[in-house]
Design a protein that fits this description.
The complex is a heterodimer of chains A (363) and B (128). Chain A is α+β, with helices and mostly antiparallel strands and 363 residues long. Chain A folds into 2 domains: 277 residues, Gyrase A, domain 2; 84 residues, Aminomethyltransferase beta-barrel domains (Elongation Factor Tu (Ef-tu), domain 3), CATH 2.40.30.110. A 6-stranded mixed β-sheet of chain A has the order 10-11-12-9-3-13. In chain A, strands 14-17-16-15-18-19 form a 6-stranded antiparallel barrel. Chain B has one domain: OB fold (Dihydrolipoamide Acetyltransferase, E2P). Chain B has a 6-stranded antiparallel β-sheet. In chain B, strands 4-6-7 form a 3-stranded antiparallel β-sheet. The longest helix of chain B is centred in the C-terminal third of the chain and has 11 residues. The radius of gyration of chain B is 13 Å and the shape is globular. Classes of the chains: A alpha+beta (363), B alpha+beta (128). Chains A and B meet through loops of A and β4 of B.
Chain lengths: 363, 128
């Protein structure tokens, strides 16, 4: 039996095509994923992301624990700020990517939002490390919260119109910042490359917010659009661009690893060893020059050796197929490579992601 | 969506519409477009080329996957629908209206031997 979010009935009533996503029955689209993608880039769309897991971290050792567990440094956070980080194994392999927020109040409480498919494993890992180190902190799963992402250039205006009493909050909120209003948690974060908000709120209030947003013409968007949007924005997906078998350094995520202080974190020594290796692979973007669609696991032929596509799709905004690919060291943007498509070898050009930002095609 | 009763169908989810002059129009069913999702590319055969039944005659590619389209009967392509080539979403919106190509069957009797709407629906039901 698949799990369902509190908005399941809304999706069914809207005619969504439902699919199994990591054990959850989620909307793939509500008619056309391409239309939903374009609605986000041109106006505003909303996503039910309640399948993701919210974990609050509190206690005297909350920060110590997070500084050990995460490759990025949670110590840099001031109240109300967010940070994107990987969580690593001792060998540097990626367990998950997540966002950590320092909650905007006096207590040193942090909030993690982790991927649905890895949440159980993440929790077990957090608790295991806490036991090993005898950290004085608790991890509280907030299964009482629903999560709705509102994304697009009109996100701020739409949220303010739909929920007038939070207008002052969304007007003042900086990018990658978060604020609490009553029982709502509003973060100016997202997975689309557009402006937008991710709102965590008590489950009983989620349907009302969804309907209020629909009433101001925010388009309901499913997982199909979510994937094409994030890929155009050059954003990684756990399980595709990285997993336990690769480190952040070979996944385009070196920028999320903070080695500037002497802070010890799980996986640090493995990364420092790997950094010194001469033939480290890299994650780059591909843009298909021929007709067709790039797809994950397709082989890439470069002048520097073979590579592999980690994620591929057709980008509705850019108007052609794009991909992220793990390729050898030395491959550089503007280089032409060959990809083994179903129909035969096709030409693609290497580029540095993102492909689209704030509605503008960069690649 | 109901499968129009005046059409014939293949097991591989193509529909065939017989025209007054004996030629046929061919497209993919609503079941097929729904399974594929938003189409982004359609590759159509050249007019004048002959095919045998079951031979790959066209390719439709969606965000999700690429899918071969098979010639429903032996015959020759006489026309292709350029409007769907440029706007593949038309097939998603109206699968039974958006024909892909027109064929002149070698033997019009072959069309009558394809599945009728009831038989095609029975196949869909058995696959569920």
């Amino acid at each position: 039996m698949l799990k369902r979010t509190v908005l399941f009935d809304m999706h069914r009533a809207a005619g969504a095509k439902m699919v199994d996503f990591g054990g959850w029955e989620m909307p793939l689209h509500y008619g056309s994923q391409i239309e939903e993608h374009l609605a986000v880039r041109s106006g505003c769309g909303m996503f039910d992301v309640s399948h993701m897991r919210v974990v609050d971290v509190a206690g005297a050792d909350a920060l110590r624990a997070l500084q050990l567990l995460l490759a990025n440094d949670a110590g840099r956070l001031v109240a109300g700020k967010a940070l994107y980080s990987c969580m690593l194994r001792h060998d540097g392999g990626v367990l998950d990517d997540l966002i950590v927020y320092r909650l905007a109040d006096d207590t040193a409480t942090y909030r993690l939002v982790v991927n649905a498919g890895t949440a159980d494993r993440d929790l077990a890992w957090l608790r295991q490390v806490r036991e090993e180190r005898a950290f004085d902190c608790e991890f509280r799963e907030r299964s009482d919260l629903a999560l709705i992402a509102v994304q697009g250039p009109n996100a701020r205006a739409c949220v303010a119109r739909a929920v007038p009493h939070i207008e002052p909050v969304v007007e003042a909120l900086g990018v990658f910042c978060a604020a609490v209003l009553d029982q709502w948690f509003i973060a100016r974060t997202g997975y689309t490359g557009e402006d937008g908000f991710e709102i965590a709120l008590p489950e009983p209030q989620a349907a009302q917010l969804w309907q209020a947003l629909a009433a101001v013409d925010v388009a309901a968007c499913g997982l199909g659009a979510r994937d094409t949007l994030r890929l155009e924005a050059g954003m990684n997906l756990y399980g595709a661009e990285m997993d336990e078998s690769v480190t952040p350094l070979e996944s385009g995520l070196a920028w999320t690893v903070d080695l500037r202080t002497a802070r010890d974190f799980i996986g640090r020594s493995a990364l420092e060893r790997q950094r010194a290796e001469p033939h480290l692979r890299q994650l780059l973007g591909l843009k298909l020059l021929d007709r067709g669609v790039l797809r994950s696991h397709q082989s890439v032929v470069t002048a520097q050796g073979p590579g592999e596509i980690t994620s591929g799709t057709f980008g509705p905004t850019i108007g052609c197929s794009i991909a992220l690919a793990r390729v050898p060291a030395g491959v550089a943007p503007k280089e032409q490579v060959s990809v083994a498509l179903r129909s035969g070898p096709a030409k693609a050009v290497v580029c540095r992601p993102p492909f689209v930002r704030h509605g503008r095609v960069l690649a | 969506m109901n499968n129009p009763p005046e059409l014939r169908y293949t097991e591989s989810h193509e529909w065939v519409r017989t025209q007054a002059d004996g030629s046929v129009l061919v497209g993919i069913t609503d079941f097929a477009q729904d399974a594929l999702g938003d189409l982004v590319f359609i590759d159509l055969p050249p007019a004048g080329k002959s095919f045998t039944a079951g031979q790959v005659i066209a390719v439709v590619e969606s965000v999700k996957a690429a899918s071969d389209i098979y010639a429903p009967v032996n015959g020759t392509v006489t026309a292709v629908n350029d409007t769907v080539k440029d706007a593949p979403e038309k097939v998603n919106r109206d699968a039974f209206g958006a024909w892909l190509f027109q064929m002149q069957p070698q033997d019009i009797g072959d069309v009558g031997r394809l599945l009728d709407a009831a038989a095609y629906q029975a196949q869909l039901d058995s696959e569920k």
